[in-house]
Amino acid sequence: MLFNSLDFLLFFLVVFGLNQGLRPWPRAQKWMLLAASYWFYGQWNWTYLALIIGSTLLDYSIGLGLVKVRPMRRRTLMTVSLVANLGLLAFFKYANWLILNWNATSGWLGLDWQFGAVDVLLPVGISFYTFQSLSYTIDVYRGDSPPRRSLLDYALFVAFFPQLVAGPIVRDGEFFKELDSDRRLDAERFQRGIVLIVFGLVKKMVFADGLATVVDPVFDNPASQGFWDVLLATYAFAFQIYCDFSGYTDIAIGVALLLGFRFPQNFNYPYVASSFQDFWRRWHMTLSRWLRDYLYISLGGNRRGKVRTY
Fold first, then answer.
1. E strand or H helix at 260, and its extent?
2. Cα 89 to the chain's mean position, in Å?
3. pLDDT for position 247
């Protein structure tokens, strides 16, 4: 179910109305949002909904266990979370790439160790909910966040439909702060939410889809194109992916805002960046922040000089 489809519009209007009507009953409101999120994801693939639920149950249990067990057991639990989440992500995203390269290498070496491709579809949004789940267990492990006692709250954090498919990546502290707040829809939130949704739809349906009519014919048959056609298509493609991706996240942030949640900005005019480092800070900002806080700094930051900053 795409954000720019009539199906999503009808779905969101129902969810928005229920969300407003259930404001006096916060727990019922949460159950409604979780059910809506699962239904939304199920429209892509009901089978893979089990992956989200399984990841949710695993990391929720690990989060509770991290504050109850001895230090050695804590490391074991954290390792289980890392291996399970990253293992699933690697399998679905890179299994066939690894098989292809293994077959090519073994053939070059004269070895008869060939494997067939794995017939699997990539689960929609798996990168986003994997990173969100991991941020939670890592924060609890480090002592930066307390474990969430409510399974309902944690399940909604993982599966909340506005950001499930295309981000932004929301931290547990950010999400639970919004979830625990009043979340009253005032005029400012309503206006900003509508503006973000409209801007996102224009980026996606006018600019990204319009640029696709220039890019696709050239990229489908580049050998028959002239130099200037290829160059123009290359620049057009750069703007196409920006408008497509940032358009989706604008819609996601706007939809979340109408439901009472403020999400972090994800793009900040990346093509006006003055350097590669500046571009990295402006493009998919929540992913850049995630990699910085959970990978880069954990590996030592830039203590060895400017090269490692990149």
1. none
2. 12
3. 95
